[in-house]
């Protein structure tokens, strides 16, 4: 009953998102185009999607509906985010073929009675987020008499129109989905009996203060299957002043007694306490309800007290006596401060034979070491996923491809209001699922606009096809592996309730279990001893597990091996401080995806080399080593992994190309972003180019490396510009020879100028020499004989000066002083006093000597004209001074054999270890002078040290 309507609604959502994306990119001067191409009239974007004509008139700041730019055959019309204060009679009467109409967030205050005249075929109407109200007679109920075929109505987030709207139900016999606001006292009366086809109802309960046992009396004979109660902002209890009789008046335990046919129930942000909420579902025992979603049902945070929090956060058998008797296939109780669940609740007979998905994410069970729900997971015969996570942003599901920069750039996180999971095919047409799919489609369309869209799309499709069993929802399930002894829930002792001696943990799981995820859960449980983990491999157990996530847990040691996971496809142990034996990874023969992001212990890859980890994984396709401070890979890596297609090495410290390409003939994606690569050798670029000929969809990511735009690497820069398999189309930030940051593609916009800069002087000199040889050959003997002495002197002046050590007299200024603006007092009153008055040297100080014009250019010219460069390295210089990085890089590049001791550092003692490595590499220790107080005068030792470093200026 729900599948057909859900699919129809999802198509409409896709059309709406497709329209929205095209509205921003289609130029307004187009008039006609054919078939599936865009057609843009004077004001609206008009095009076809799946042979359906769509008009997008959103964001045009309209004050009235103007249909002269909308074709009469339009089937989908969007008027969102305009300023349509009043919808007048006959506004849409020419659009007799209209099926979908959306007027969201358009400041609509009033709808005249014949506004929708002629829309007899309309199936979906969205009037959410407007200013409709019962007080101002915003609309007459007869306004809806024209909707003889309306199936979906979204009219929530207005200003309480419940009275007028309910009188309109008499005209909406075919309505199957309704989203509306509720009154202060929630009451769905006899007027809902007119909605004979209604099966999905969402109520925005932001003003609800009371739910009685008669609140849903009008639905007792309806076919309603899905009920969503969301956004309770006023209905909340104070646990320290709790009175059962008062609570019954606010939210009666018999409130749901009239919902006989309900299959899906969601209650979100109803903070009446977990125990109180558990009592409300008693009437669903032996009913058709099979999906229950509870979110944020704990007491309001403002009323927190330690006793009430702990008491309400423990789910006992007595608390869940109704919950455990429901024949549920899906149960979610998230973000509700649940500390523990008593044994027997999860493994009740009803759940044991029916439960497929259980979600207790964003709760606190992992923080106290209580694992009773995890112990009972093996008893659930049909369990596919179990979710238990910590209440933090990090506990959201982190997909294995998250380390790729282009995924982060093009796919934004989905908001918490848009992430409700699709549990069942009958549930697909709910409002929250529509929002989730809406956001997903939006991301897909956004990705299509990027420069690398085709490569990203290809990779996404490949990943999706390989991992079809992973739902694309941030709310995914986890299962605990650790088998521990059961103890009393409130027994607190110095010994944790898990083994600490050497031994083997035998883990049994349900035969139906496919995905195990333990993420950010085990806090403080890091004294696990020398443990081995063994999954019992029988036809009914762990051999069916295909995906195993163990991410962000505080487990530091786990010796032994994991056995039984013979069909494991994906293994993610990122963000752990785990120490394992070399043979720990030997029993995953079917593994295709291995993720080792951000391992917390720095010696992880020193204890177990990467080639040892993957040597027994012949089917490996995807390896992610993001953020592990790696600077070297074994040259024979992947010699046993010829099927590898994706290697992610982002955010490491590689300064050279780390992979031998002939060992990876199927490699499609290599991510080297955020490393320390300055350039690639000609051999490396040639191997990549040759590989791209054999693998057409090759994609290399180099963003975030400090590319060097210098003349010695002109071939590499040309390769970046012409290679089509690079991210950003080869446009990278690079450092030029004079220390400036530019883009490689900007550099090649004036390729002839770059060639002239690199080779122009040499070619010019060669041309002059050839010209002189050709023109004055007959005079050379005479010139050599006659002007022999003058020629020798000239050559000495030209060439000898270039190789002899430079003197202070060869420069315009003796000392250039680089410092932060906040340190000018120290420079002016202490440092300059000593340099200029005592040592009698000339200095350049930017506060005093800068003239009008470009500041950066004057600074670089002054550094070039200075015999010594003295940098005052303080915390303010490193953190607050905009030019610090450029000045330090230019200073390091200015060192040459002709002036080897040009750079001197005057370093604040606290910043000694914060000096960039490229400065340390070119400095002797004697040229680093340490001081502790900027306000104190230079003592004798520091004065002599400075004088020694500047002695050639005397």
Automatic annotation (TrEMBL):
Domain TIR: from-to ranges: 811-938
Gene3D superfamilies with a match to the protein in the record: Ribonuclease Inhibitor, Toll/interleukin-1 receptor homology (TIR) domain
GO MF, any single term: signaling receptor activity
Family: Belongs to the Toll-like receptor family.
Keywords: Glycoprotein, Leucine-rich repeat, Membrane, Receptor, Repeat, Signal, Transmembrane, Transmembrane helix
Subcellular location(s) per record: Membrane
UniProt key word Repeat: yes
One cellular component term from this protein's GO annotations in UniProt: plasma membrane
Pfam families: LRR_8
Superkingdom: Eukaryota
Transmembrane segments annotated in the record for this chain: 12-30, 763-784
Identification of the protein by name: Toll-like receptor 7 isoform X2
Bilayer topology annotation: Single-pass membrane protein
Chief location category: membrane
Single Gene Ontology BP annotation: signal transduction
């Amino acid at each position: 009953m729900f599948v057909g309507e859900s699919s129809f609604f999802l198509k409409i959502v896709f059309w709406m998102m497709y329209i929205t994306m095209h509205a921003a990119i289609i130029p307004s001067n187009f008039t006609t185009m054919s078939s599936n191409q865009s057609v843009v009239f004077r004001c609206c974007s008009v095009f076809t999607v799946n042979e359906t004509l769509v008009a997008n008139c959103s964001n045009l700041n309209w004050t009235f509906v103007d249909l002269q730019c909308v074709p009469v055959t339009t089937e989908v019309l969007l008027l969102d985010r305009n300023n349509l204060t009043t919808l007048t009679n006959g506004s849409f009467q020419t659009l007799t073929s209209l099926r979908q109409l959306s007027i969201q967030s358009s400041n609509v205050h009033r709808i005249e009675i014949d506004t929708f005249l002629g829309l007899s075929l309309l199936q979906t109407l969205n009037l959410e987020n407007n200013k409709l109200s019962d007080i101002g007679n915003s609309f007459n109920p007869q306004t809806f008499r024209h909707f003889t075929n309306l199936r979906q109505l979204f009219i929530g987030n207005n200003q309480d129109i419940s009275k007028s709207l309910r009188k309109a139900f008499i005209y909406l016999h075919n309505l199957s989905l309704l989203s509306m606001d509720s009154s202060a006292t929630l009451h769905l009366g006899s007027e809902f009996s007119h909605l004979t086809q209604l099966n999905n109802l969402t109520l925005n309960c932001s003003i609800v203060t009371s739910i009685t046992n008669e609140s849903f009396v009008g639905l007792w004979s309806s076919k309603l299957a899905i009920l969503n109660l969301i956004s309770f902002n006023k209905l909340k209890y104070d646990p320290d002043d709790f009175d059962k009789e008062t609570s019954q008046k606010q939210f009666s335990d018999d409130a749901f007694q009239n919902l006989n046919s309900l299959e899906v129930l969601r209650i979100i942000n109803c903070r009446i306490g977990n125990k109180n909420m558990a009592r409300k579902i008693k009437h669903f025992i032996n009913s058709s309800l099979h999906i229950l979603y509870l979110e944020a049902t704990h007491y309001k945070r403002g009323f927190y007290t330690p006793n009430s929090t702990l008491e309400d956060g423990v789910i006992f058998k007595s608390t869940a006596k109704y919950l455990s008797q429901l024949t549920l296939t899906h149960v979610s109780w998230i973000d509700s401060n649940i500390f523990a669940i008593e044994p027997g609740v999860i493994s009740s007979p009803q759940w044991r034979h029916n439960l497929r998905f259980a979600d207790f994410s964003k709760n606190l069970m992992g923080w106290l070491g209580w694992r009773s729900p995890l112990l009972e997971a093996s008893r659930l015969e049909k369990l596919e996923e179990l979710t238990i996570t910590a209440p933090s942003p990090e506990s959201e599901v982190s997909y294995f491809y998250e380390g790729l920069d282009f995924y982060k750039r093009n796919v934004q996180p989905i908001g918490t209001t848009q992430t409700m999971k699709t549990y069942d095919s009958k549930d697909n047409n709910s409002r929250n699922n529509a929002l989730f799919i809406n956001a997903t489609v939006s991301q897909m369309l956004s990705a299509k606009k990027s420069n690398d869209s085709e490569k990203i799309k290809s990779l996404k499709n490949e990943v999706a096809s390989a991992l079809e069993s992973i739902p694309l929802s941030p709310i995914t399930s986890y299962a605990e592996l650790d088998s521990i002894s059961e103890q009393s829930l409130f027994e607190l002792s110095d010994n944790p309730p898990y083994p600490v001696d050497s031994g083997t943990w035998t883990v049994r799981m349900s035969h139906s279990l496919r995905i195990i995820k333990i993420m950010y859960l085990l806090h403080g449980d890091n004294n696990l001893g020398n443990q081995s983990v063994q999954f019992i491999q029988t036809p009914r157990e762990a051999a069916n597990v295909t995906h195993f996530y163990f991410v962000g847990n505080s487990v530091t040691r786990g010796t032994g091996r994991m056995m039984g996971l013979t069909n494991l496809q994906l293994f993610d142990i990122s963000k752990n401080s785990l120490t394992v034996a070399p043979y720990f990874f030997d029993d995953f023969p079917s593994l295709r995806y291995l993720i080792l992001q951000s391992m917390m212990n720095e010696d992880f890859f020193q204890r177990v080399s990467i080639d040892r980890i993957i040597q027994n994984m012949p089917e490996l396709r995807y390896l992610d080593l993001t953020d592990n401070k790696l600077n070297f890979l074994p040259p024979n890596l992947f010699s046993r992994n010829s099927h590898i297609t994706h290697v992610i090495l982002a955010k490491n410290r590689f300064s050279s190309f780390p992979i031998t390409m002939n060992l990876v003939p199927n490699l499609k994606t290599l991510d080297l972003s955020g490393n320390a690569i300055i350039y690639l050798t000609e051999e490396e670029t040639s191997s990549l180019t040759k590989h791209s000929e054999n693998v057409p969809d090759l994609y290399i990511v180099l963003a975030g490396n400090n590319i060097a735009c210098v003349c010695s690497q002109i071939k590499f820069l040309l390769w970046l510009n012409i290679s089509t398999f690079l991210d950003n189309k080869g446009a990278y930030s690079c450092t030029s020879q004079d220390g400036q940051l530019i883009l490689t593609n900007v550099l090649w916009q004036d390729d002839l100028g770059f060639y002239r800069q690199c080779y122009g002087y040499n070619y010019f000199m060669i041309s002059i020499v050839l010209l002189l040889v050709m023109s004055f050959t007959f005079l050379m003997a005479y010139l050599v004989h006659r002007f022999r002495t003058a020629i020798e002197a000239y050559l000495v002046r030209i060439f000898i000066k270039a190789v002899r050590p430079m003197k202070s007299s060869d420069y315009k200024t003796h000392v250039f002083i680089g410092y932060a603006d906040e340190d000018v007092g120290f420079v002016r009153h202490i440092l300059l006093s000593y340099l200029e008055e005592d040592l009698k040297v000339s200095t350049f100080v930017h506060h005093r000597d800068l003239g009008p014009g470009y500041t950066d250019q004057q600074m670089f010219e002054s550094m070039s004209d200075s015999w010594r460069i003295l940098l005052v390295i303080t915390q303010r210089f490193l953190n607050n001074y905009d030019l610090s990085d450029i000045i330090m890089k230019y200073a390091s590049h200015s060192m040459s054999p002709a002036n080897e001791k040009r750079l001197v550092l005057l370093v604040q003692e606290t910043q000694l270890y914060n000096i960039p490595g490229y400065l340390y590499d070119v400095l002797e220790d004697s040229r680093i002078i340490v001081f502790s107080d900027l306000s104190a005068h230079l003592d004798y030792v520091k004065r002599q040290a400075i004088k020694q470093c500047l002695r050639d200026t005397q």
